[in-house]
UniProtKB/TrEMBL annotation:
Major localisation: cytoplasm
Protein name: NAD-dependent protein deacetylase
Catalytic activity: N(6)-acetyl-L-lysyl-[protein] + NAD(+) + H2O = 2''-O-acetyl-ADP-D-ribose + nicotinamide + L-lysyl-[protein]
EC number, as in UniProt: 2.3.1.286
GO molecular function: histone deacetylase activity, NAD-dependent; NAD+ binding; zinc ion binding
Alphabetical list of NCBIfam families matching this protein: PRK00481.1-1, PRK00481.1-3
Positions contributing to nicotinamide binding: F34, I104, D105
Entry's cofactor comment: Binds 1 zinc ion per subunit.
Lineage of producing organism: Bacteria, Bacillati, Bacillota, Negativicutes, Veillonellales
Length: 240
């Protein structure tokens, strides 16, 4: 039995699956990741992306932050790929209980997933820092300079976790619950180097840990199955 057949067999015999994903899940939808050859970290800007996407940079240089944010982080025309679609189908079939994602693009929800735990927030939620009025991503995309609240004039901040900011405790607790109770944990499209998010997977207690990634990770030796390749292509083999 090859690795793909082993993977689909594990899925067919599991009914409490949790998926933990990173940027590589969305690259097949045309959204660049951060650390690959063509990723954001390997492109040249006046400041490195990790500096621009920090809380202190947002506070001190909001106009430059939003120039980068609109240009590189708001990929609103992106469509779900086969990984997003199959995960939504697995949830609808009652086999998958939660998607835990480091992504902020909302593609899991666009594909139909309901129980999505967004560790790093979402570009689709934006709030006035004064009156907390809600704004969608389109409002941010079509604004100029630092987006302002149309109700009180206050500055608007995306509901995304920037560098130097902590994760939401409620989301972490939910992720820990689902991961620790899963009978199968699928990790896909992540290099597992971003903490504390990557540390959540050590709470998995089962024996069906599957890693799907284009490159190696520090967890490869602990996984029950490792598959090298595009995650959408791998998930395309799942039959429901």
């Amino acid at each position: 039995m090859n690795s793909i057949d082993t993977f689909t067999d594990l899925v067919s015999h599991s009914d409490n699956i949790v998926f933990f994903g990173g940027a590589g899940v969305s690259t097949e939808s045309g959204i660049p990741d951060f650390r690959s050859v063509d990723g954001l970290y390997n492109q040249t800007y006046q400041y490195p992306p990790e500096t621009i996407l920090s809380h202190s940079f947002y506070q001190n240089n909001p106009e430059e932050f939003y120039r980068f944010y609109r240009d590189k982080m708001l990929c609103l025309d992106a469509k779900p790929n086969m990984a997003h679609i199959k995960l939504a189908a697995l949830e609808k079939a009652g086999k998958l209980k939660a998607v835990v994602t480091q992504n902020i693009d909302g593609l899991h929800q666009k594909a139909g997933s309901k129980n999505v735990l967004e560790l790093h927030g979402s570009v689709h939620r934006n709030y006035c820092q004064h009156c907390h009025h809600f704004f969608d991503a389109e409002y941010i995309l079509h604004s100029i300079g630092v987006p302002k609240c149309d109700a009180c004039g206050g500055p608007i901040k995306p509901d995304v976790v920037l560098y130097e900011e902590g994760l939401d405790n409620t989301v972490i607790e939910q992720a820990l619950y689902y991961i620790s109770h899963a009978d199968m944990l699928i990790i896909g499209g992540t290099s597992l180097v971003v903490y504390p998010a990557a540390g959540l997977i050590r709470y998995y207690n089962g024996h069906k840990l599957v890693l799907i990634n284009k490159s190696s990770t520090d967890l490869d030796g602990s996984a029950d199955l490792v598959i090298r390749g595009p995650i959408g292509k791998v998930f395309g083999h799942i039959k429901l």
